[in-house]
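User: Just a sanity check before I run the rest of the batch. Below are the structure tokens for the first item. I only need the designed sequence back.
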């Protein structure tokens, strides 16, 4: 099967980044998904873009890693403070004793374009470009009947986040990922790891807030760091849903 990677990025001068999305689709679905991503860029709650970029690349089948989606747990919380307490508890479950410091550093990622790569033990930042951060890309979902991409016509925060988290924590040097969406209409975030899967925390910020960012918690040497960054930014992945 011939496949293509499609990436969409939209921005404007006032808001900066507005919207981003990507798909890995069969050749016969390429045109319709380009149109869907263009429509999504033009109709975002953060505003009207004055710049939209669509990047399309051919993908060979043998380039793709196939992963099973992480198991999902949902934790209902009444507000951001309780939500952060839940995340802190899961960090401690991983044996991380500097959880409060990690949560404080999480806020520094809110102004970044990508994710913060943080040494789990020393809390040193490891991303080569601190403004750009690390962008986990080249991924999509696929269900048993092959209808994964068409399961939702617009943005589905949960599915897209589950795909990204599954790819990220599959790397052996990633201990966990923390994420809050920067979408002002979406307040659910998550913590994910190979140990306990994907944990949705229903309230991690106040409605209307555009604050959002992610941290990849890393443990390993310099060679492992370079391999991890390459994997996150270049490896093609399809995540299989039940």
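Assistant: Here's the designed sequence for the first item:
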């Amino acid at each position: 099967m011939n496949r293509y990677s499609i990436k969409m990025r939209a921005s404007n001068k006032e808001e900066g980044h507005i919207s981003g999305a990507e798909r890995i689709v069969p050749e016969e679905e390429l045109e319709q998904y380009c149109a869907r991503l263009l429509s999504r860029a033009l109709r975002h709650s953060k505003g009207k873009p004055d710049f939209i970029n669509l990047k399309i690349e051919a993908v060979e089948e043998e380039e793709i890693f196939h992963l099973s989606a992480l198991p999902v747990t949902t934790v209902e919380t009444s507000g951001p403070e309780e939500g952060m307490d839940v995340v802190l508890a899961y960090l401690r479950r991983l044996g991380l004793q500097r959880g409060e410091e990690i949560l404080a550093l999480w806020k520094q990622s809110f102004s970044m374009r990508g994710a913060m790569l943080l040494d789990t033990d020393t809390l040193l930042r490891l991303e080569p470009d601190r403004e750009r951060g690390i962008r986990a890309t080249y991924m999509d979902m696929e269900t048993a009947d092959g209808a994964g991409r068409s399961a939702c016509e617009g943005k589905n925060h949960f599915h897209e986040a589950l795909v990204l988290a599954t790819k990220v924590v599959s790397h052996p040097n990633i201990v966990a990922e923390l994420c809050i969406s920067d979408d002002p209409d979406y307040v659910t975030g998550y913590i994910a790891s190979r140990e306990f899967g994907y944990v949705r925390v229903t309230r991690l910020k106040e409605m209307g807030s555009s604050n959002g960012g992610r941290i990849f918690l890393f443990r390993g040497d310099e060679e492992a760091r370079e391999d991890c960054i390459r994997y996150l930014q270049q490896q093609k992945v399809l995540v299989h849903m039940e």
